[in-house]
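We modelled the chain as a single entity of 898 amino acids. Its sequence is:
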Amino acid sequence: MKEVDTEDSLCAMYKRFEREGNKLGSIVVLREIGKRQCNESRFDEALKTHSEGLRLTEMACDTLEMVQALNNIGTNYRRLGMFDLATGYHYRAWKISEEYSDTSEYAEKNRSVSLNGLGNIYMTTGNYERADSAFRMALEGEKRLRSDIGQAINHANIGSIFEKRGQMDSAWVYYKLSMKFNESAHSVLGVSLCHMNFGSLYQREKKYDKAIEEYDKAYLLMRASKDEWHALGSLLALAHIYCDTGREKEALEQLDKAKGIASRIKSKEHLAEIQQQYYLIYKKRGDWKKALDSYVIASEMQDSLVGVKKLNQIQNISLAVERNRQAIKMGEARRQYETERTTRNISIIVFSVIIVLLAGVVVMMLYIIKARTRTHRMLTQMSEMRETFFTNITHELRTPLTLILGLGRDIVNDEKLPENTRGMGKVIEKQGNSLLVLINQLLDISKVKSAVGEPDWRHGDIAAYIGVMVNAYREHAGRKGIMIQYESTGKLEMDFVPDFASKVINNLLSNAVKFTPEGGKITVYVGKSNTRQAVIRVADTGMGIKQENLAHIFEPFYQEEMDCKHLGTGVGLALVRQIIQSIKGTIEVESVVGKGTIFTIHAPLKHGDGGWKELGEIDEIDITLHDEDNNTDVEDSIASDSNRMRLLVIEDNCDVARYIGSRLSDKYDVFYAPNGREGLDKARQIVPDLIITDLMMPQMNGLEVCRNVRSDELISHVPIIVVTAKVTDEERIEGLKAGADAYLCKPFNEEELRVRVEKLLEQRRNLREKFSKMIAEGKEQEIQMNDADKHFVGKMVDAVYLLMDNRKADVCSLAEKLCMSPRQLHRKMIALTGESPTSYIIRIKMKKAKLLLDTKPELTLEEIADRCCFDHYSGFYHAFRKHYGVSPTQYKRGVDNA
């Protein structure tokens, strides 16, 4: 491109590149045109050309060309004297070069040019320190590039700084280095500028001949290169020397040449300086007319230059505002770019993390699948081992159970035995049958789960079969006040296993009867669905099942936490589900607490290929009814006025309650309650010496009984034994916190029961004796009691003093004041203090009498007796003498003497 001779050819090339859409070619051509225009001092045209090139580089996002365009525009503004704008463009070019990651020679050159431009501006404006720093940074870059022309320029610039500072020796060194590199680079312009620099130094040293010689060399070289702007400098320098040395003719010749060039390139600054030189020469010659004309022209041009400077300043301000706006846009674009880059990086990181996580999830899923497979295999083996264990253990249990049931029936049928013994035999037989049913259910679950053998399938009327079972339950339910209603759509022929049907209906009906209160209703429905399946529905109006427990009721050994005396074993419904699943049927449950429960069974009408034996006539089905309420209520011991201790047994199972009572009734009066609420009421009524309570009971459990007893001032002193089938450390701690004194685990030993009862009663007896002894010694404040007992004793003493003030301090009035019967008060006082209420009231009266004798000697004995609520002085006399060992008169004399 440099080989193209004319500017017109370059313009034609630019238009061709524009038509072809070759943006890079257009940018390069504009750069070359702008440089030629700048070298020919056509700065306005060069500005337009380089600005268009800058626009194209920004569109093409070509950073290297953008930096070069910015530097070229800065140089143009610098030549025009618009240093503020020039600084902005050079600084922007340098900043982009610093941020750009390219380390090529081209990029490094752009950076050095930017620094060189900034240094020239700083030097022109007198900021030599910053100029020196910029030139030296540029010089380092040129050295890395090994650029002779670049090093020459920067050495010359540094030398100019030393010259302006008056450091001539240093200036000569750098100027000579610049000449060396210019000659090495064969730079005509550089060599001519070095001659100008040498001439300037010679002129400062007053060596005018040598200075003229250097300026002439510079002018000749510049004229040959067509660089008229630099040529003006050399001509003016020669004119100044000729004028100073008195060679006016030669000075005028140089000024005439300079005037022609300045007029041609329209450099008003140079023209003003030329006219000023004309003025000085003509003034020196005495040619006042020409001197005046030159002075006027110079002044006008100076004024014009001032206006131009002002205009330049205004333009600088406007352009500075525009530059700031552009900088803001560039900043926003740069921030957007950074944001997009950050977002892209984050997206890549997130994507990588997701890939890693997905890979981890896949590996984890494979591991979980493998682990589940292994766990499933182990669980299957454990399930088989558990079922085998249950089968074997239940078979082993049936052997001793057969003997127990046989001997129990022998005891019941032996009329020679006492009635009490035969009653025990009935209990043994009944409990043994309950255990046998449980064992059979465990065996049934194992049989249904196993694939060994084929059930005894039959074909017949399932509606009639179930109807017979429902009729068998009517009498049992009637005894509880429950009505059973049977509904059927008519005869329903299907294949079924009679044994399975019996177990399923028996379990569902027995549960319905168990959980339906008196006056409730049970409905059994048998029909056919639209999908040609048998539908069996058992609905009750019982207590219902909580929603969170519905999903677990078919699990083996699951027991819902409920306030019920029939907790069961959790085997029955598990057996029902196993049976229904084995015949390819389904069972569903719906329940609302307080309203009832509905079990719905769907079973296929046909099993296999059919051809099963007919069911035959249905006369009677052998079912086992578990009557939970067939226990006769145990009777309380006949209350007597003897000194026998009273025990209260709170137990919902009558057989267990009767057994406990039979072991203790020979030494104690035993009273019974079937649940916690009734037990608490009876405890308040009889004020027992000890309470034995079950843990799991209806209406109120054993822990609640303990808490209520300990908070009731009437019976708070009563020791409590909790009897339960399961005693963990947590339950034991909870029971002790509630107020239990001892635990007894079922099945318990008779001797252990007796020992625990005796020891607790003995402990209470020792406490009473200690209480009586400390009262007698006047150490009532040192007695240790629980809060409820302390409150009761304090309340009773306050009541006695209040009654004495009202002259009604007797047992009946005290009992009424304490809201209990005289008998309850008597038992409470005996159990707590070992004294009867009458004795305790007399003790308080004597304490008050002693206090009156000590503090109020002016009172007569009769007045003291009256204040202590004695009707006659003789009663007061005998009571005082019995209590203190002296008569009231003798005691009063002792007080008076003291």
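As a brief sanity check on the tokenised model: The CA atoms of residues 63 and 100 lie 8 Å apart. The first strand starts at residue 458 and ends at 461.
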